[in-house]
Design a protein that fits this description.
This protein is mainly α. The chain has 14 helices and no strands.
């Protein structure tokens, strides 16, 4: 991988990690309801990239379902989970998406699930359970159950997306925003009456946060990531996304003062190791290290 592209990947992961911290502040400290926050984010995305809605991909029903699963459903549940959970724990638990996608791909698409990947699934599950477990009882980690639900929806959407080749990144972003905003606004009006007041009271910091989340994270960072996926093998790019949970943990400890004791450290290490086992074959680990060496442009 060229040094320029590796630097871009680092920037993308830093943006994603920063968004976890920003979203935590929005739903926990600014008094903004999570569903309303998610709805407004996708409304901005829809407006920003709405011109890419056409030509309409086919089948349309599948695209709408995928957009709802990977967009509105995934992010809404993630924001609900962030309201009562630390960004660090959310970042680790969300890594369940990798083994879930592998298992669903095996079940729904007939993809290969050999012993190595099965071991990776088991390691990730064990690490996540260690992060979620609390000596005082599961009630203290209830918010993380929403994160688990979010990863289930996101993984299902990712598998269904594999059955829709040819959808361009900005076109997909446009449909995610368009398909997600209306259901989320309706759910917010029903479950979060008066949510707009909290957003108004939050003032300019909330405006900056939602614009960052919509334009920098969704439109810019995700589109740049899709571009890297197109230029390099997924087995090279995907493991680099592990910089996101690591960055979230670092920022969480420094900014939101997340607790990061031995149990959290061990669970994180086991879960991230499981993700690497799934993403890479043994001989690809050395290839990854060699590919990251700077080279002349």
């Amino acid at each position: 991988m060229a040094l320029r592209d590796f630097a871009l990947m680092v920037l993308i992961c830093l943006i994603w990690a920063s968004n976890n911290i920003v979203s935590k502040f929005v739903v926990s400290h600014m008094g903004v309801e999570p569903l309303f926050y998610a709805a407004l984010r996708f409304a901005i995305v829809a407006v920003a990239v709405g011109r890419w809605l056409r030509p309409v991909p086919r089948p349309l029903w599948r695209l709408v379902v995928v957009a709802l699963l990977m967009g509105g459903g995934n992010f809404a549940l993630m924001f609900v989970g962030l309201k009562t959970s630390s960004p660090s724990s959310v970042a680790i638990v969300s890594q369940l998406g990798v083994p879930m996608t592998a298992v669903m791909g095996w079940f729904m698409l007939g993809e290969r699930l050999d012993r190595r990947r099965a071991l990776g699934v088991a390691l990730t599950l064990a690490g996540v359970m260690l992060v979620m477990w609390d000596p005082r009882g599961l009630h203290a980690s209830f918010g993380l159950l929403y994160v688990v639900a979010a990863t289930v929806l996101g993984s299902l959407g990712a598998v269904m997306m594999k059955q829709m080749p040819g959808v361009k990144p900005l076109q997909f972003q446009a449909w995610v925003g368009f398909a997600s905003m209306i259901p989320l606004f309706l759910l917010s009006f029903w479950l979060e009456p008066g949510a707009w007041r909290g957003a108004v009271n939050a003032g300019q910091p909330f405006v900056a946060a939602v614009l960052f989340s919509a334009l920098i994270v969704s439109v810019s960072a995700h589109t740049a990531y899709y571009g890297l996926i197109q230029r390099y093998e997924a087995t090279l790019v995907s493991p680099l996304t592990l910089m996101t949970p690591l960055g979230t943990i670092a920022l969480g400890v420094m900014i939101t003062h997340d607790s990061f004791g031995p149990r959290m450290a061990l669970g994180s290490a086991i879960a991230l190791a499981g993700v690497l086992v799934i993403a890479l074959r043994p001989n690809q680990i050395m290839t990854l290290l060699l590919a990251l060496r700077p080279r002349s442009q």
